Amino acid sequence: MRRKRPTVVCLAAALALTGCSAASTGGGEGDSALTYLTFETPSLTAKFWDTSIANAEKKVPGVKVNKIVAPSTDRDAYAKQLQASGQFPDLLQSITPSTFATAGLLKPYDQTWVDAKFLLPMGNAYKGKVYIPPTNSQIIPEVFYNKKLFAEAGISAPPKTWSQFMAVCAKLKDAGITPVELGGGDPFSASMPLVGILSADVLGENPNWLKERYAGKVKFTDANVKAAVTKYRTMVEKGYFNDGALGVKYADSITNFTSGKAAMYIMGSWFLGAVPKDRADDFGAFLTPTDDGSLVVPFSVGGSMAVSAKAADPAKATAFAQAWSLDPANYKTLIEGDGAFPMLKDKTLDDYGVSVTKVFKDSYSYVTAQNEKVSAFGWATNDDSMPSGLNNAFYAASQALFSSDDIDGELAKLDAAWDAATK
Amino acid sequence: MTTRVRPRRGDPALGSIALVALGLYVLFIVIPVIMSGWKSLTNENPLLAQADFVGLSNYTEMTRDSDLAASLSFTLLLAGAVTIVANVVGIGFAMLLNRTSLSYRMMRTVAFLPQVLSGVVVGYVWRYILARDGILNNVLVSLGIIGEPITWLGSPRLAMFSVGIVAAWVLTGFTTVVHLAALQSIPVELYQAALVDGAGRWQRFRRITFPMLAPGTTISVTISLITMLKLYDIIAVLTSGGPANSTQSTALYIIQLAFTDNRYGYASAVAMLLLVVSIVIALSVTALLRRREVDL
Known about the structure:
Order of helices and strands of chain A: HEHEHEHEHEEHHEHHHHHEEEEHHEHEHH
Radius of gyration of chain B: 23 Å
Number of helices of chain B: 13
Mean pLDDT of chain B: 90
Shape of chain A: globular
Oligomer: heterodimer
Strand content of chain A: 5-15%
Helix content of chain B: over 70%
Distance between the termini of chain B: 43 Å
Largest sheet of chain A: 5 strands, mixed
Structural class of chain B: mainly alpha
Low-confidence stretches of chain A: 1-29
Structural class of chain A: alpha/beta
Order of helices and strands of chain B: HHHHHHHHHHHHH
Helix content of chain A: 40-55%
Strand content of chain B: under 5%
């Protein structure tokens, strides 16, 4: 037998496969084949993505979109891996634009289109350009509360100032009710109370704090940041969080709160999608209280998909992204399932045909009202976004402050991490 | 009837196999290590498509990196503690299971089972066992051993302890099998002679079993240490390195540097450090244990 045959066969097969692959992604003569990075959650299911993609495809003739599903909800990490292996997608859903725009990997949207369609056109702009259409927003975090447990503890109204908030916590604890549920087993979830306090106190006083941190004008070790972090540490010391909070996973913390095991829950407004519909009136929401009772909305304008600067067909990729971003059917799922606040111009909630709870409407009123909105600390996707990798340091500090009272040390670590990430 | 092919000196088939093995070793071990060594001298960032030569600056940065120091301390502590526990328990299990009946053979399989499971599966299973409302707490509370559930993964010290216990549980399967093999190679005549001389159970263990286990222990301890020094999967699932980075192994830190922080260059430098540390520890421990074998 001639030994060369297997090699020849393998080579031929590989070539054939390459040829097949190229042909099969085309989806027909003249079609542009695009790859689209998505992610799946209990509310944003595979069916949602498939349907939304099919609907947008119909609006852009000659485009065939192949879905890539990130293995976890961390789209940024997966997109980086794809980039490192030369497979950066043509379209990327809900990524952090600054991470990729800095590297020149994203194509900005036409500003005229953005200005015409969205309530806050520059809501997630990075260095003056919009890389993800500002389709929806979140408040990160709100303080959700259980009205029945408040009543049981003799609390008649949600607190407006920080001292009232601490008094409410004390009253609940005295009544044998866990004041605040925390799913600290997941680092992002552990950081939520701190995100709320820093957004309210530090950004509320100086909305440009993050930009000034980039410029080296302010530091984490500054007195005002330390004072804010001390509030969080005080909550820990007084035992206002559930026992073993750092051992509770995020998903379990939702169940614990909705089943009445704690009176309050500090989480992004996406929690609204998890409020039990049949008991929705049992729950209310308020913003992290400030010292003087002024309202500060920790706000984050999110968006749909970014377009790769090296997309196979930039024009069709952009057309597809625009079609998807304006489809009301997608908003319905995002609003009802993910608690997203829509940001399309000239639309009311009724225009989306959604069924939402009172606590959703109350929360949405913070978005539509004229008030002080600041970038949610660590969650912004615009110029206030933190340097890549700093979120991990921030989450670790949030967890460390559960067992350590070395606030100065933790803040110094954050400064060091920031400096290392931006050098 | 099967025919055994006896290898002959200069057999060309053997030479081909050796060449293939050598080729694979070079392809999958030597070249990646050399590439990693080169990357460690650059500031490679895959997103920025940048990879400038920066000399030894990554290595000098390591001396100031408190996160690296913390991860390395945890890794060394874990490797040392788990190696000791797994090998002591492994020797005990090996002695218990050193019987030929079917039931003991089945128990050996059960003892080896954790070693067969993927680290990811192990992590998930133990995450449920160690949860605040998990099986372990339920059992301990129902037996009245503890009053309140313990958050095994919820405080830095307890999480470190829990990771160690899970890693030791996995590794004990391996150490049991290695020591069992070593036990079965001990000549029965030695025990018979000791019995004639009136040696008790403890004396038989101290004078015969323990010394004769030395070659197996050398292998078991060395491989245990290397396995623990590069531990990633179990920790990634069980604690993700938390809380507050308390269980962040060096392997986990390397992944974070490379894929979250996009610092391939610095991650490669840390990987080279871990490689050197692993080689130094493995060679030192092997030399020490081999000396014990010779002394016997």
